[in-house]
Amino acid sequence: MKIHKNDQVLIISGKDKGRKSKVIEALPKEGKVIVENINLRKKYNRPKKSGDKGQIIELPIAFDASNTKVICPKCNKPTRIGYKIEGNKKFRLCKKCNTEI
Ligand SMILES: [Zn+2]
User: Fold this and answer.
1) What pLDDT was estimated at residue 46?
2) E strands, the chain, in order
């Protein structure tokens, strides 16, 4: 998958469209990503002790990686990713500035 953990991405569709954030987890098998503060769902945490109040927390849920674009750390623009292969190493390239990312 072209998107890796810790990449900065731009959300290009859905309710978070136009927002930028960081990939917390990439799930290549499913073609999905989990992005910080994006696609949040409320989750109810049950109280641990009786008398405690339950807590509602918001968790980012995985969504389709095709809804994001990687932001190149060099030119700072949302870009498509290309690949460069040297020997048995594979590098990701920014298609805008041609820098390895
Ligand atoms: Zn670039």
Assistant:
1) 85
2) 8-11, 20-27, 32-35, 40-45, 55-60, 63-64, 68-71, 78-79, 81-86, 89-94
**How far away, in angstroms, is 81 Cα from ligand 1 center?**
9
d(CA 46, ligand 1 centre) in Å: 45
CA of 3 to the centre of ligand 1 (A): 14
Digit-coded pLDDT (tens) for 52-98: 888 899 999 999 999 999 999 999 999 999 999 999 999 999 999 99
Residue 96 Cα to ligand 1 middle (Å) = 5
CA distance 34 to 50: 33
Q: Which amino acid is at 23?
A: V
Question: In this structure, what are the phi and psi dihedrals at residue 100, rounded to the nearest 5 degrees?
Answer: -65, 135
In one-letter notation, the amino acid at residue 20 is K
